[in-house]
Amino acid sequence: MAKEKLFAYLALGAYLTVCPFLLQGVASDSNSRYTQKAYSSYEIIDFYHLNYASSYPQYLISSDYKLGWEHQIANKVVKAEYQNHLYKGKYSQTDHLKDTIELYAPHESMLLSCGWNLKQFFLQPHIRVGENMGGGLAAKYYTTNIVYSGNVSSKEDKADINYSIRDEDGNIPFSWLKTDASIGILSSRLNANIKLTSLSPVTCDSLFDNNIHSSSIGADISYNINKDLQISIQSSYTDIDADLMYKKQQYGDIQNFRVLSINTSLQKTLPHFSYQIGADSYFGGIGSDTYLDIWPFTYLDTFLAHRTRIKQLGIQAISPKLELIYTFSAKPIDGFNFSLGIGYHHLFHKEDVIIRNRKVVLYPFIFTYDTNHYNWQDDINGYFNIPLQASYRKEAGMLEIKLQQLAPIKWSDLFTKPTTSTGEPSDGVKQHQWGGLSCQINLSFQF
Amino acid sequence: MKPRFTPILVAVLFVTAFLLVSCFDSNTEPENPPTDVSAANVLAREGMTILNQTIIDLGNNQPDINSSEDLMQQTTFDSIESKFTAALAVDANNPMANLGMSILSIVEINYDNELWTMLDDAGLINNSPRRIINNQFQFLASAPLCVVNQIKGAKTDPMSIMRVQNFIRNNVLPKLDNAITRLDKAVAMADSTSLMIEVDNEEMVEIDCGEIYAFRAATNAVKAAFNFMVAYDMDMTDPNGGYSWQDDIQNIEEPQGYSYGIYDHHIDGTILYLEYRDDWYAESYVQSHSMEIMMKTMKWNLDNSATFGKLTSTGVASLNAAKAAILSAAADVKLGTNSILAETDDQTNDIIKIENINSINAEFPFTDDDTPAFAQTWQNVNDISDWLTTVMNSTYALTLNGVDFSVNVGAFFNGAILDIEDYIPFLQWNDPAIDWVEDSIDYEHGWTPYNNSYSFYENGVYITVNNISYVRRRDHDFDLNWGNDLDDQGNVIYEYDVPYFPDYTFNGVLPGMTRAKMLLLHG
């Protein structure tokens, strides 16, 4: 049960990373009296946590902090924004707490940009300095009714996997260059964007060459049928390949890891209520020759000769959804504003995961593979989504808090009394799981 | 004209005949016909595929002797061997076929249930690995203890050790020699021939000389262990030369009529004594009496047998063979690492990669405080091989617990210990005519009773005893009182003292060793 909840929370984490963008608040009114704006935001997402014996052997969290300043000078907009983003995770088994694998993926940079309004054009190049360098260019073209936009940017990113298993410690670095290119069109009714993203490898260190290649294409279209009714469609397709090398020897090969997502919704907005119906769908797969040599870095591999093959990673999920949101005020007003919502996403899903592990039969000549099948279609039926947003607005500034909780559910568990307490495993040590919570605090003021 | 024409014609006919005869006689085939390597490879690969799958299917399977499963297993081995034999008939040096025959020999030993049942019954592998696959060096390390266990009489199920030793000499050692001979041929051809083995329809792994050397080292380790097991005569007979002592052990029955729990009590002053037996008391009876028979039989053999505990007629040869096998194993480890480090091909499909050897060597030197001084000098794997070779071939100086001493392992393998009895500690045996097994108090504990009164069941009767200040329960068990350890003056010593030996050097195996040094080494 613990493992099933873990995967449920992690799967929902994917939703949480997308949702903030879907629930963006209304942009604060621009006021010509003010030429400068300072803002700060902090977001933390708790994908999953396991508490066992007063420690946290398993967790996945992300945090994102921004601190920025914009200044409009005549036809120029100068911007500086400090960004600090971190993905952090840990995995160890409850019966081997000392053996751990940790994920650490930081991003820290200072974005500096200067934009020029040139009649119908707006150009805004930017650079990133700091731990993660980058740069890019944004452009907009204004016509009477339509705004055309284009954006190209590139930035460095990195991640580390730190392991400590059986007195063997080590670090596996990953480094890549992420390049985005997008074009968009915005009118009174239509907002459409197409985005291309690619990851290309960057040299890690003298020992590792973890070459990750990824390409992704996505489209995002929303159309206002009338002032109260909006339809939107988002889709994306991602393909990832990776050659993992240690001391010029290959220890892993990820082939054709692909994810397709299609999200549709129809939203009706009333003065104090809005409701949304739609469906999200996800499809995933991987090439059958994907493998990882778990212990290529120590002398143990000489005798273990371990290899894990991911033969199949078939994931299909279709999730119809219904969400209802109550808003205190139809439009943001000065003073206190809040909105509260509840949504249910039912999951029709099927997983077919086959993992094979190599083991020694007669060293050093004869080996074989154990085969393990995994699926979770019987472990989760759907999930609830509860967004809460509260803000305090004044003419010159705003403080906003956004909370969102996702809660997986299996309907049969509600009607079946458990025979043993899920909080007390057989070894008598209490454990507790939670996750699916995101919290964002935004502060801005103009002067 | 006619007379001249005739000689010419005869000469022409002669030459023509000669040529024609030569044509008919000449063998158009060369003296050594070319070897059909491809045909041999096909047969060898077929055999290897079946062998591969058979070993995977066998896993930890241990069918009963002469069960249908056991017989089917042998039939399978025979069919595999026929493939390799056919390949070798076509190409005697075929590396895949030679490798396969070698592996098959080891597998047959590993899954010879008759052998392992005998070894278990004879007490040779009481606390040792039951099999040799992936356990070869552990098996070698446990071999000396197996022999010592015979002297200690630690086995509980009687089995003629002579029968076991004969089986090892006649069945196991020849197979091991055959396996090593095959590996010699395989390693000679490995680098000039690509040896690929399929792994479960997922990938092909390449077998190079390095892997074969590693396997040959492990096989030599097993050969050394089995040679060690047959060096000494450990066969025990009873006074009339038979094995009725084994029947006597089999005939020991658990005593009937014992009651468990509290079976008796008495009062001494105000202290209540409870005599208690646990439910394994009867089993303990059987074990103790079994041990008594075996130890008395061993004592009789030590005193009267001309051969018990002594090197057999081929004992020195067996010890020499064990030493040679250990030295070969050490050499193979070195050959293997050097071979792998010298490889220049793509390492992707190798099992033991260059990086694996580098990773092992990166663990050196060992600097922990617990590491012996001699081990701290090792800089790589080859240094261990060199060290072992030195230890086996010469007197080696060591320091342990601050004590300098020497070891001459070679002396042992050259037959320094002709008779184990000459080197066991000074002992005083009890009279074999009397019972050695006696009831004893294994454990005692007590408590203060409530209200100076205590109630209990004794043999099914509920009893209450009043006016007592303390209750003491004594748990009974059987104790085997075989005798005592003595010092060199014949005085009885405490059982946990370091024993007194007649020769602390063990006839040169530990040159210069004295009791004082041994006490310091013991800590």
Describe the structure.
The complex is a heterodimer of chains A (447) and B (523). By secondary structure, chain A is mainly beta. Chain A contains three helices and 21 strands. Chain A has a 21-stranded antiparallel beta sheet that branches. In chain A, 19% of the residues are buried. Chain B is α+β, with helices and mostly antiparallel strands and 523 residues long. Chain B is 50% helix and 14% strand. Chain B has helices at residues 2-25, 37-58, 68-90, 95-110, 113-121, 136-152, 161-190, 209-229, 244-250, 281-304, 315-341, 354-362, 373-376, 381-393, 409-413, 515-522; strands at 195-199, 203-207, 261-268, 271-277, 396-400, 403-407, 427-429, 437-447, 453-458, 461-466, 470-480, 483-485. In chain B, helix 3 packs antiparallel against helix 4 (95-110). The longest helix of chain B has 30 residues, at 161-190. Chain B starts with a helix and ends with a helix. Classes of the chains: A mainly beta (447), B alpha+beta (523). The A-B interface holds A 246-247, 249-250, 296-299, 301-302, 305, 309, 356, 358, 360-369 and B 52, 55-56, 59, 99, 103, 106-107, 133-134, 197, 199-200, 202, 205, 207, 211, 214-215, 218, 347-348, 351-353, 355-357, 359-360, 362-363.
Task: Quickly describe the structure.
The complex is a heterodimer of chains A (447) and B (523). With 447 residues, chain A is mostly beta strands.
